[in-house]
């Protein structure tokens, strides 16, 4: 398809120069700091988004819980619905009712914070999730790791807990040479690593997908003409669909992270 002697491919190629279309790169995830103290502290746009997102989550939870009434209003009803979802669908789905009540504040903190940081990826003016960098997902994963290891030690004692996870019952002792390193990697290394990578990779993919489509739409609508503007309308419609899909992914990843944390804690507390 051509327009005025220039193909779409030629337009995109020419867009790499000044004033043309600039596709997203990893540099967007490492913005220059606008506040720096020596060589040990810096504050950039992504840090600001983190602070705003966490403050917004805390504010919404505070507003939902500050005035509880026998007949709840709209805000309290929404808050109770959200907490009820975390309690029933995440905590009690993986733990005993007693443990679910005990761990509800911890799991709810993880769920709502991960969700708040994820959702900034589709908010105008932010357009990026803080979980697209490894640092924040890793912090959540380490917190989950500490929680399920501490619960395992509390339930069984250090020696019994390590023996259950490193030396599977019923296996020939000679197989422990092979099984013990595998069990150690699976339980104590791969769990936090997969939690981190799954969350980070989904947020990175969503960011670049949305950015690429919006950049292409803007470029086609401004620089193109005729059929190319029509193509821009198509990419714009697809961009809107991807926004809705990315909202779904943001919620889904928060749910997956929280429920896997609950599952690991529940497994750590069980007798094998």
Question: What do you see in this structure?
Answer:
With 272 residues, the chain is mainly α. The protein has one domain (33-269). Helix content is 70%, strand content 4%. It has helices spanning 8-14, 45-65, 74-91, 97-119, 135-156, 158-166, 176-223, 227-269; strands spanning 2-3, 6-7, 35-37, 41-43. The chain has a two-stranded antiparallel ribbon. Strands 3-4 form a two-stranded antiparallel ribbon. Helix 3 (74-91) crosses helix 4. The chain is globular, with a radius of gyration of 24 Å. It starts with a strand and ends with a helix. The model is unreliable at 1-18 (pLDDT under 50).
- How many E-type strands? 4
Strand order of the largest sheet: 1-2
Structural class: mainly alpha
Number of H- or I-type helical stretches? 8
Mean pLDDT over the full residue set: 85
> What's the N-to-C terminus distance?
65 Å
Q: What gross morphology would you assign?
A: globular
Provide a concise account of the structure shown:
With 272 residues, this protein is mainly α. It contains eight helices and four strands; from the N terminus they run E-E-H-E-E-H-H-H-H-H-H-H.
């Amino acid at each position: 398809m051509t327009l005025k002697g220039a193909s779409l491919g030629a337009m995109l190629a020419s867009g790499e120069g000044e004033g043309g279309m600039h596709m997203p790169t990893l540099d967007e995830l490492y913005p220059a700091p606008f506040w720096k103290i020596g060589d040990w502290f810096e504050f950039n746009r992504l840090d600001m988004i983190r602070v705003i997102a966490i403050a917004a989550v805390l504010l919404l939870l505070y507003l939902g819980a500050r005035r509880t009434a026998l007949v709840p209003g709209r805000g309290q009803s929404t808050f109770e619905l959200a907490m009820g979802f975390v309690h029933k669908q995440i905590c009690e789905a993986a733990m005993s009712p007693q443990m679910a009540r005990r761990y509800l504040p911890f799991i709810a903190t993880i769920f709502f914070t991960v969700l708040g940081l994820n959702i900034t990826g589709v908010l105008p003016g932010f357009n990026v999730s803080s979980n697209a960098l490894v640092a924040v997902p890793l912090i959540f994963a380490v917190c989950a790791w500490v929680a399920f290891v501490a619960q395992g030690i509390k339930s069984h004692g250090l020696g019994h807990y390590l023996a259950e996870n490193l030396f599977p019952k019923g296996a020939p002792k000679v197989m422990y040479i092979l099984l013990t390193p595998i069990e150690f990697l699976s339980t104590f290394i791969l769990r936090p690593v997969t939690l981190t990578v799954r969350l980070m990779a989904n947020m990175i993919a969503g960011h670049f997908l949305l950015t690429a489509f919006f950049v292409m739409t803007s470029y086609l609508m401004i620089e193109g003409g005729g059929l190319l503007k029509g193509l821009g309308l198509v990419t714009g419609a697809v961009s809107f669909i991807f926004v809705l899909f990315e909202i779904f992914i943001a919620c889904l990843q928060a749910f997956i992270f929280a429920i896997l944390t609950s599952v690991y804690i529940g497994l750590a507390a069980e007798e094998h």
